[in-house]
């Protein structure tokens, strides 16, 4: 198991609990809020971020919910994984984390790469999830022509991260610029918020994890999806939320018309970019509460 330690302190969020949990070779850093005996909700962030993307929700947790926000392997203050960030491996890491936390079933929220991995989790072990709220992420069943029509968005930045990610994140304002450009409402990020994110990716472990995230996507996940498109069907309730001003992922890649799912809806949010947990935290909170109420009977 890798033993590299993260440096610095996590950013302050009012009222949260923090701890570390080892699972499948990863030393997970967890930020938790809400009732310790409440209904568990697993919150998964993306790049170039960490658990702080859910700070508004964590600082004001809905009554009756236990919010659990791990830093993904190698991100934030979690330790590096013993693999190169293949998304199925990360899904296995997170399922092992749920086992370590003794959580047989949770509500799931996933943004960006956290949403991508979240779909793998609900497809692989649907009984573990009462419902899923994916945020600004394509679902696993995009129409090939639609995907190719919008692949230029990925080409703007992803090959750069996959190839030169460590020096790019460490020595330039690349992360800062992506965050600044990724929101429609520029007040969603303060200069301090951006620094909190960009500083982490100047560190060796998160910088390497981000690079591996994109490298495996281009070298493994995209070729696999091209040869063997996703055929598994989602059987849990999926309530997707998508800011249509997203410059990284086109809203059509989350279309309900191509989703192979028993119960899938998508809500498109005008005047909102990619980082919807920060640009529209009120809406994310409301839709989480709606999903919790909708699935309460099963719980």
Describe what this molecule looks like in 3D.
This protein is of the alpha/beta class and 299 residues long. The chain has 11 helices and 8 strands. The protein has helices at residues 55-59, 87-100, 113-124, 144-149, 151-155, 158-171, 174-181, 191-200, 204-227, 276-279, 281-294; strands at residues 17-23, 26-34, 39-44, 65-70, 106-111, 129-135, 237-243, 264-269. Strand 5 (106-111), helix 3 and strand 6 (129-135) form a beta-alpha-beta unit. Helix 2 (87-100) crosses helix 3 (113-124), helix 6 (158-171) packs antiparallel against helix 9 and helix 7 (174-181) packs across helix 8 (191-200).
Strand segment count: 8
Order of helices and strands: EEEHEHEHEHHHHHHEEHH
Q: Assign an overall shape.
A: globular
- Gyration radius (Cα, Å) is 18 Å
Distance between the termini: 36 Å
| Largest β-sheet summary | 8 strands, mixed
The secondary-structure class comes to alpha/beta
The portion of residues forming beta strands comes to 15-25%
What is the averaged pLDDT score? 96
Quaternary state of the chains:
single chain
The spatial strand order of the largest sheet comes to 1-2-4-3-5-6-7-8
Number of helices: 11
Parts with pLDDT < 50 across at least 5 consecutive residues: 1-5
